[in-house]
């Protein structure tokens, strides 16, 4: 089942916590050159920065955001500028890469 399964109205804290831990173990931060540095702003105002390869899928971005402390169970990823909504976790487009959806690191 999807980690962001909108058909399930209630997600138990225990199963959510276990899933978050499994994803943390699975998601390794790349150490290569030519990575994207992405900033995630959480609803509580906290910020988390992480490197991703340009080939990383949008799904990986959602999975990383889901593992962040205080991340909500259901959310949408939105770019800051230009403002646009990234493909939702439960859509076929979630397999697109960061490069394919136009995500780039700032050059400044």
Helix percentage range: 10-25%
Amount of beta strand: 5-15%
Average pLDDT taken over every residue: 80
What is the chain-wise order of helices and strands?
A: HEEHEE
**C-alpha-based Rg, rounded:** 14 Å
- DSSP strand tally: 4
Shape: globular
In DSSP terms (H or I, runs of 4 or more residues), the helix count works out at: 2
Task: Report the major sheet.
Answer: 2 strands, antiparallel
Strands across the major sheet, in which order? 1-2
**N- and C-termini, Cα separation:** 40 Å
Q: In terms of structural class, how would the helical and strand content be classed?
A: alpha+beta
- Unreliable stretches (pLDDT < 50, length at least 5) are 1-14
Brief summary of the model shown:
22% of the residues lie in helices and 15% in strands. By secondary structure, it is an alpha+beta fold.
């Amino acid at each position: 089942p999807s980690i962001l399964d909108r058909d399930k109205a209630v997600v138990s804290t225990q199963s959510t916590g276990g899933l978050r831990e499994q994803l943390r173990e699975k998601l390794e931060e790349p150490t290569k050159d030519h990575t994207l540095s992405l900033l995630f702003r959480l609803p509580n105002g906290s910020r988390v920065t992480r490197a991703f390869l340009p080939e990383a899928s949008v799904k990986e971005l959602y999975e990383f955001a889901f593992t962040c402390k205080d991340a909500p169970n259901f959310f949408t990823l939105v770019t800051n500028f230009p403002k646009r909504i990234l493909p939702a976790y439960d859509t076929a487009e979630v397999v697109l890469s960061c490069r394919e959806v136009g995500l780039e690191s700032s050059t400044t």
